[in-house]
Amino acid sequence: MVAESFNGETKGTCDGRASGRASARPRGRDDPGCGPLIVTEDGALLDDLLRLCAAAGAEPEVAFGVPPAPGSWEGAPLVLVGAADTRRVPGTARRRRGVLLVGRDLDDPDVWRRAVDVGAEHVAFLPDAETWLVDRIADVAEGAGDPALTIGVVGGRGGAGASTLACAMAVTAARSGRRTLLVDADPLGGGLDVLLGAERVGGLRWPDLAESRGRVNSGALEESLPRTHALSVLSWDRGDTVVIPPQAMRSVMGAARRRGGVVVVDLPRRMDEAVAEALAQIDVGLLVVPAELRAVAAAGRVASRMAMVLRDLRVVARGPFGSGLTDETLAELVGLPLAGELPPEPGLPAALDGGEAPGGSGRGPLSGFCSAFLTAALPGGGSVAA
Fold first, then answer.
1. Are 184 and 235 in contact (CB under 8 A)?
2. What global pTM score does this model have?
3. Is the pLDDT of residue 198 over 60?
């Protein structure tokens, strides 16, 4: 099955089968949106590959029945070679990454030898590998690199301040110039767009995306969302609660992460299949726990459910601290590593009531925590040292 695009229609066009070399210019591997090179003399296979390129929004360069143009083999970000067409690859072509051998005959005993001959990374058999191949081609079309550092934030109890921290984390990341997307995964949370003062900003909300299936185009997704404070926000409208199927959550989260930068997800305390799909794509989770014994007990229950899916979950201890509780003690009682402490910020409620976005001033304990956390997290390419 070919993955669907964001709006239910395929994006981009591909030239039809040519009786020779396609007229596309050779393009550098770092050229954003650059399509793959197809090398084959099998007309039926070419038709299939052109169809998959169209589904992925990529415009390929085609060497049909002739060797690739000079520079094309080296310059294409991805090369698709027909399983019976390896002799079309010039003997002088250097070994490179991103070569895929594509065929149909699972019983072909020579296919693996030919894959070794051309230095192929994978052998893809159609039609079974169509979805996988569309994803690989779409990564090329979208200029996909390293995925975004994805941070999930959840409250240990109701009113813990998780939504405020999630917004502040996103605002802080965007202020540093990083591509940032904020995802509101809690349908009962009131809407992060409201917290950011963007409830009247045009753009799609979750109800518009509830039927998403297959691969969602990351560029189309980001362009369609409300934009505020230099970041994109996926939140809820003011209508009735809409159930987000797990397939839609998986597709949207995958698209959100593909363009790199930072993705922050505000998570509900309950667990369902859609939340599990979101957790599966989160690098590190922050569990906000106020310094209260009842909050510790509630946070322990939340942690036990989240930890079944999310391997890296840490406590953010929120003050004020009393009754002998410290941030380290709080983390120990919950049974998780400590991410850091959020001291009281007396002026924060008034600032939020006055329309200031969480973390918008760049000052105070909330902004300080977010800046320190992101500084520690991002240099390692999304790996947050414990």
1. yes
2. 0.72
3. yes
